[in-house]
Amino acid sequence: MEIWEQDSGRALDSLEHLRSIEDAVGQPFPADYLHVLETHNAAYFERQEFPVITPDGLENKSVAVLLSADGDEMDAESVLSQWHTLQDEHGLEPHVVPFGMDGGGNLVCFDFSADGEPAVVYWQHDEMWLPIRVADSFTSFLHQLS
């Protein structure tokens, strides 16, 4: 089963703006994530559901789109735009960097707060929860999608 819908995604011209995020968090993005962006930038996920243990118990959440690596801060589906929104409007720390979004504006993010490979966390915009860890790495997150 494919993770990505076949005819989705935009060509990726440059990763310059992602490099500026790396500079801000002090760590590089995972190589497997950058590789996915090279061929599936702004793609839609075919397999979307993943389990999350929320304060309310086990729930299935979803991720619909891989956020664009384009530098357009006006594009609501870009990494850069959502990263600034998390900080400016929701007070999250810069080490939480979104890479995916569901249809309701909830985000799947990297958590660069520890050294090494960033964990994957889920952030729900209409709850007071802090981001919830869902996977140890981007690759393990992709493997749990159903």
UniProtKB/TrEMBL annotation:
Give the domain of life: Bacteria
InterPro entries, alphabetically? Knr4/Smi1-like_sf
Q: Name one Pfam family in it.
A: SUKH_6
For this protein, the record's Gene3D superfamilies field holds: SMI1/KNR4-like
By what name is this protein known?
Knr4/Smi1-like domain-containing protein
